[in-house]
C-alpha cells in the first residue's frame, strides 16, 4: 500500500516538472517573438502622437480622398447656385425694379449689382485657378525651419503639408473644398475677397428682395389655402364645375423663385458672413487658420512661465491689412481692393521680414 502511494506521488512530481518546463519554454518563445516585433518596428521618434496618428490613418485617408472628390462637386454646386440666383435676379427682380423704382435707385441697383457680381466671379475664378504656392522642388538650398515628413523636403517658415493636395503649401491657411484648392500664399487674398463679396452680394439680395419675399410668402400661403378649397370642391362637384385656379403657372413659379432666392441668400449671408468675420479677425492679427492654433498653444505655454507671446508675422493691425491686400500707396485701396486686380502678394512666401518690434531679427522667433 505504501509503495503504491510513493509511486503515485513520484508521478505527480514528474508531471508538474514537465508542465513547468513546457510553460517556461513557451514563455521564452513568446519573449523572443515580442523582441522580434519590437526590434523590427523600433523607431526612436515613436511617441503617443505617432501611435494615435497611425491608428487614425485609415480615417484620414478616407476623409482626404472623399474631400478630393467632393471638391469637384462642391465647385459645381457653387457655380450652379450662384448662376440660379443671378438668373432669378435678372428675370424676376430687375424688371420689377425698372418698372417701379426712380431713376436714381435704378442706377444704384444696376451699378452696385453688376460690380458685386463681377467681383464675385473674378475672385472665385482666381481663387480656384491660382496655385497656392509650393516650395521649390529639388532645391535643398532654400530657407527652411524643418523637414516635411511626408515630402522629405525642406519646409520654409509658415509652410504646412496638405494631405489632400499631398504637397507642402506656402503660408498655408486651409484646404477649401468649395474651391477644390488649398488657400495659401498666392491665393489667400482671392479667397478672402470672394468670401467678402459673396457675403455682400447675399446681404444685398436679401435686403433688396425682402418686400417681395413677404408678398411671395403670403401668396404661397393663399395658394395652398385655395388648393385645399379646390380639392374640397372637386370631391363634391363634377370636373366641369371646378373653378379655374386664380394663380397662373408663371405667378406660382415667380413666387417660389423669390422665396428660394431670399432663403438661400439669407442662409449664405449668415454662414459665410461668420466665416468672413473669422478670417478678417485672423488677418488683423497677422495669422493664418493653422497659426491660430499654434499661437494659441504657444501663448498658453509662455503665459505659464510668466512671459508674453508676440506673433512674429504681425506688423500692426492696419499694416497687416495693407500687406494682405498689397496696398503700397493709398490709390491701391481703389485699384487693388475695390476693383478686380491680379497683382501678386507681398514677398515670395519663403522668407518673411521681421516686424519692427523685433530689434534684432532672431531666426528662432521666425521658426513656426
Ligand atoms: Zn510636405
Ligand atoms: Zn490642399
UniProtKB/TrEMBL annotation:
It holds the Pfam family DHHC. Belongs to the DHHC palmitoyltransferase family. GO terms for molecular function: protein-cysteine S-palmitoyltransferase activity. PROSITE patterns: DHHC. Coiled coil: none annotated. The DHHC domain is required for palmitoyltransferase activity. Residues 146-293 form the Palmitoyltransferase DHHC domain. Its EC number is 2.3.1.225. GO terms for cellular component: membrane. It comes from the Eukaryota. It catalyses: L-cysteinyl-[protein] + hexadecanoyl-CoA = S-hexadecanoyl-L-cysteinyl-[protein] + CoA. It is found in: Membrane. This is Palmitoyltransferase. PANTHER family: PALMITOYLTRANSFERASE ZDHHC16 (PTHR12246). Its main location: membrane. It is a multi-pass membrane protein. Keywords: Acyltransferase, Membrane, Transferase, Transmembrane, Transmembrane helix. The chain crosses the membrane at residues 32-52, 72-93, 105-125, 190-213, 259-281.
